[in-house]
Design a protein that fits this description.
Layout: H1 3-13, H2 22-31, H3 34-46, H4 50-62, H5 66-74, H6 82-91, H7 97-108, H8 116-122, H9 128-141, H10 147-155, H11 161-168, H12 171-178, H13 186-198, H14 205-216, H15 221-233, H16 241-254
Helix pairs in contact: 2-3, 2-4, 3-5, 5-7, 6-7, 7-9, 8-9, 9-11, 10-11, 11-13, 12-14, 13-15, 14-16, 15-16
Length: 256
């Protein structure tokens, strides 16, 4: 038995599929049974061959089942080909929420500024998981241009907004948020302030003191929780004035 036949037999017994050239893999994705098509999609996604990218673009344009499309989209991650951004931008608007979320996730990991408009557009998606993915990506990038849309999400009671708003918040934005007690639900506003307080890179401590005082104006368990979490996060800096202010409020509320 030749070595090639031996390899093929071992792979067959193991339920695997031998690695093929790009043309064969593309054909298998289109016409193979489900197992073979999925394995071929994985191999194309993992391939560094420039022709593999072309095959992925073609297959996604022609249409493949969502599970295979998800795998192929993964093969566009990290590719510098501008077509990858364009294709991902199209899939970011897909009716399948999971495929859309997957595309947004890959776009969010791309440092190219060209992806920012696509992420901003995804903040208006109907699917909560897509909006959450886009908000998280923009927050990680500290994308200032997202401020208006993220604040709108916060006002619309979108649970994906607090962490993202907190990530891009400046002292000026924190001051504006302090004026939104009432229009923005207490729970979301408290969560936003709580996340801002926990940021190690956020502004001078006097601004933190003002945030703590703002939380004190909200008589709810949510504000107490935000203050308690801040005390835990700042435990290594016990002399911080904002921490002392938070401790005093928590003690007063607990009656101790």
């Amino acid at each position: 038995m030749t070595s090639s036949l031996t390899t093929a037999l071992v792979l067959a017994l193991a339920g695997g599929i031998a690695y093929g050239d790009v043309g064969t893999l593309r054909h298998d994705v289109q016409t193979g049974d489900d197992t073979r098509a999925e394995e071929a999609a994985k191999q194309l996604a993992a391939s560094k061959d420039p022709k593999a990218a072309d095959a992925i673009f073609d297959l996604l344009a022609l249409g493949v089942p969502p599970r295979h499309a998800d795998i192929l989209l993964g093969g566009l991650a990290g590719r510098k080909d501008l077509r990858a951004i364009e294709v991902l931008g199209v899939f970011a608007q897909n009716r399948n929420a999971e495929l859309s979320r997957r595309a947004v996730s890959i776009l969010g990991a791309n440092p190219d500024a060209k992806v920012v408009p696509l992420l901003l557009a995804a903040l208006s998606d109907e699917a909560p998981v897509v909006r959450a993915e886009a908000a998280g990506a923009l927050g990680k990038r500290k994308e200032k241009s997202a401020e208006g849309k993220l604040l709108l999400l916060l006002e619309r009671r979108d649970p994906s907004a607090p962490a993202a708003v907190a990530a891009i918040a400046t002292p000026e934005l924190a001051h504006r948020l302090a004026e939104q007690i009432g229009p923005i639900p207490d729970a979301l506003l408290c969560e936003t302030f709580g996340e801002i307080l926990k940021r190690s890179d956020f502004g001078p401590d006097p601004v933190r003191v003002e945030i703590v005082k703002t939380l004190a104006k909200i008589p709810s368990l949510d504000s107490t929780t935000a203050l308690q979490e801040y005390l835990q996060a700042s435990a290594r800096d016990p002399k911080r004035p904002s921490r002392a202010e938070a401790e005093a409020i928590v003690r007063q509320r607990s009656g101790s």
